[in-house]
# Entry
Amino acid sequence: MSVTSVSRWSGGYSDAAVARVKNARSILTKLGAESVRLSQIHTGPHAGQWLTSVSYPDWATLGKAQQALASDATYQKILADAGAAGPLLDRTIIVSIDL
# Structure
């Protein structure tokens, strides 16, 4: 079972968004993230917006990572750079079922 946090951001500049997620990726993987992805929506009402998805192997790893990220100054600075991908609009937690 993996747990994935999917966040939707309001837009921004491509190069800046990519750089922002690359910087965050190194921190997130050190805290147990199995994958970190950046995607841009190309159709529908959210076209142009960005999605970041961060997958963890289980709830415990996600919880420990979230606790550490809350006090990580470098990560907080990355999040504060709203010009890169725009402000956060939505966050969803998805739990996968292994088949």
The first strand starts at residue 3 and ends at 9. The mean pLDDT is 91. Residues 18 and 73 are 20 Å apart (CA to CA). Residues 14-30 form the longest helix (17 residues).
